[in-house]
Amino acid sequence: xxxxxxxxxxxxxxxxxxxxxxxxxxxxxxxxxxxxxxxxxxxxxxxxxxxxxxxxxxxxxxxxxxxxxxxxxxxxxxxxxxxxxxxxxxxxxxxxxxxxxxxxxxxxxxxxxxxxxxxxxxxxxxxxxxxxxxxxxxxxxxxxxxxxxxxxxxxxxxxxxxxxxxxxxxxxxxxxxxxxxxxxxxxxxxxxxxxxxxxxxxxxxxxxxxxxxxxx
Length: 216
Description:
This protein is of the alpha+beta class. It has one domain (2-211): Alpha-Beta Plaits, CATH 3.30.70.1230. Helix content is 52%, strand content 19%. The protein has helices at residues 23-43, 67-79, 109-120, 133-152, 155-166, 173-180, 184-194, 196-211; strands spanning 2-4, 8-15, 48-52, 56-61, 87-94, 97-99, 107-108, 126-130. A hairpin with a 7-residue loop joins strand 6 (97-99) and strand 7 (107-108). Helix 1 packs antiparallel against helix 2 (67-79), helix 2 (67-79) packs antiparallel against helix 5 and helix 4 packs antiparallel against helix 8. The longest helix is centred in the first third of the chain and has 21 residues, at 23-43. The radius of gyration is 17 Å and the shape is globular. It starts with a strand and ends in a 5-residue tail after the last helix.
């Protein structure tokens, strides 16, 4: 058990219509979730994860400024698997937590907010909350618009956007084109069609806003 007063982020999610997936699709999904969680752990070795029943997942994130990017990676990586795949995700940032060896047994405000947000999702598939009202209010409407954009993405658009998120926007369009094996003009057009410029701008705004909030 580790008591921490530092803020953490908790990402909680489940798979939409998971019971309709074939066993082969389910295995593909499980492999993808494990890949995502491994990537999140490269951002901070203290980040921890769980997968429950194969269709529910959770990540504890200590590099809280990256919480939105990791959430986007979850959502877009899963949607990239095909039109049958999508997820509902609630992520929250809060201070004071009781972290245990098992993520599912850990407790704290971020866990409560994240879990509560996930249960409250109906037609929406993405929500954010925080124990800092200014953060919650600042991003409430922006996250709703982001959710609509993500829901409308095709699996191909997700495939194009994913390398940009994985590299933390560190790829040039030329490098992205090489990664995807397509022409530079095609990569550029696909990024614009997916709404990447605005999604990237929102991610960087989130990073700056979270970095500017004082936690006590």
